[in-house]
TrEMBL record:
Residues 12-150 form the VOC domain. Gene3D superfamilies: 2,3-Dihydroxybiphenyl 1,2-Dioxygenase, domain 1. This is VOC family protein. It comes from the Bacteria.
């Protein structure tokens, strides 16, 4: 790839993701100190056909997603120790873990990552028709890039979360989905 910054030119960055040591304390910080939220909890996520460094894995994780203005904040809680970016070398805690970009076509992202010489860390299906790739383009842990092609209904789900943040009064800071 000859264009400088081409990996982030695929789509705007829409999410900052964190892997906190203390999930509840992080949620309190983001909602009570920063004022982001409310957060929506999705528990026990297992990607379809998930691989870590090309090998199948049964990693399970939960996420809480909220908005800080138009920026999505994701807090991640691993639910098992299976190989993933949430265990081992890439499990950097209490600082930025990865950024996310929503793309229309995951194959365009896959091609750009290959051209950049990136290492695809995690790949998997999101729902019936979505797909995600987490990659290291050379920055190492804490610099992971996530590209997601949303599943059907994903855009509407994120819009609902963003709309809930508009004028949020601080009540009910964590809301379960699913």
């Amino acid at each position: 790839m000859t264009k400088r910054g081409a990996l982030t030119d695929l789509a705007p960055i829409n999410q900052l993701a964190y892997l906190p040591s203390d999930f509840d304390a992080a949620l309190h910080h983001w909602t009570q100190v920063v004022g982001a939220g409310p957060f929506f909890l999705m528990e026990n996520i297992a990607l379809g056909d998930m691989t870590y460094l090309g090998q199948p894995t049964d990693a399970v994780f939960s996420v809480a997603i909220g908005y800080w203005g138009d920026m999505q904040i994701e807090l991640i809680r691993p639910e098992n120790d299976s190989p993933s970016i949430y265990s081992g070398k890439y499990a950097v805690k209490d600082r930025l873990h990865h950024i996310c970009m929503v793309v229309d076509d995951i194959e365009v992202a896959r091609k750009a990552l290959a051209e950049a010489g990136a290492t695809n860390l995690v790949e998997g299906k999101v729902g019936e028709d979505g797909y995600v790739i987490y990659a290291d383009a050379g920055g190492g842990p804490g610099n992971v890039l996530e590209y997601v092609q949303l599943m059907s209904g994903g855009k509407e789900l994120f819009a609902m979360m963003r709309d809930a943040a508009k004028g949020w009064d601080g009540s009910d800071p964590l809301r379960k989905i699913g």
